[in-house]
Write the structure tokens for this entry.
Amino acid sequence: MKYLYLLLIAFAMNVNATETHELKIVKQVYDINAKSPDLMYQFVPDYLEINTGDSVKFLGTVGRHTVHSVRDMIPEGVKKIAIMPRQPNVVVFDKPGVYGINCKLHQRHGMVSVIVVGGDLHNMEQARVGVKWVSPYSRGKMNKLLDIAQNKFGDK
Ligand SMILES: [Cu+2]
């Protein structure tokens, strides 16, 4: 029995060691034919769930989009995300929690997104407070994205 237990631990450690971190792609879209401004400028997808340690590559930052974490909408101790156009655009998310992201130039048109890392909502309350830092136009969308996370991961 003890042997089996050790075997299981060894197996679990091995699985852990070979776990690969994924690279997800988020596009920044500018669609001039969109029916309304809130569809014209978008992160696609604008809601993303990733595992702790995964990376996100933001495409389109060579244009006129930025990728910035919203004040109060990242876990405590995490360095803020600030990708200006033409800068390296891969972000490693190694701290679990809720992240609110916006494009500085187009967040007034609803260009905001939410990334949930590790299914962890420990900073959800703070993130809700941080919604005030995006434009009035984007607040409804940001709250809807947070709702998706809350509905999915509840009070974990
Ligand atoms: Cu933009």
